[in-house]
Amino acid sequence: MAKREHPLLNGIIAAVATAAASALIPAVREWVSTAAIATWSVIRSGWALLTDSYPVPGWVILITLVLACRAAFMLYRRLGHAPEVTWENSYREDRMHSALWRWGYAAGDIVGLQPFCLQCDAELVYEEQGPDVRRRLWDDTPIATILHCETCGARSTTMQGDRRYAWASVEREIRRRIRTGAWRQQVRSTEPLGSQT
Ligand SMILES: [Zn+2]
Question: In terms of domains, do 14 and 91 share one?
Fold first, then answer.
């Protein structure tokens, strides 16, 4: 069923709308005009700021140029280069005793040291040779630790001392390479092609 419109109601709505519009239009017009004047004023001031000449001492220009160049250089370094290479974030594997040793760091200390096979990258297992702990008191046969690969059968060099001594000697060598800077050569040699500078 079509809705019938009430003539009196329509009249009241039209009157109220007309009154509101006539009251609002001058206020809106004034606001728009004020906003336009303010905007134009800002544009003119900005343009004057850019085009006017100022008596600036040479040292101000020089310092400004130096600061701008430094900022541009820092931005270029940050955007165009990888994070700085340090032994702590990059030196985590190296070759010693015919094995590839991998490790991590915890508060600067070497942790999780483990040898891997150079042929097939399997974890190497160790075997201690020589007298056991009780017999070492009177038996002075040299103790040795042998690393070998269960996967491919490769046998690496025999290391001096028991397992604990052998691992500690590798840790000492890692720390020596960190101190002398020799670690950088190892990191460079394992970088993927194209990333070397
Ligand atoms: Zn192997």
Answer: no
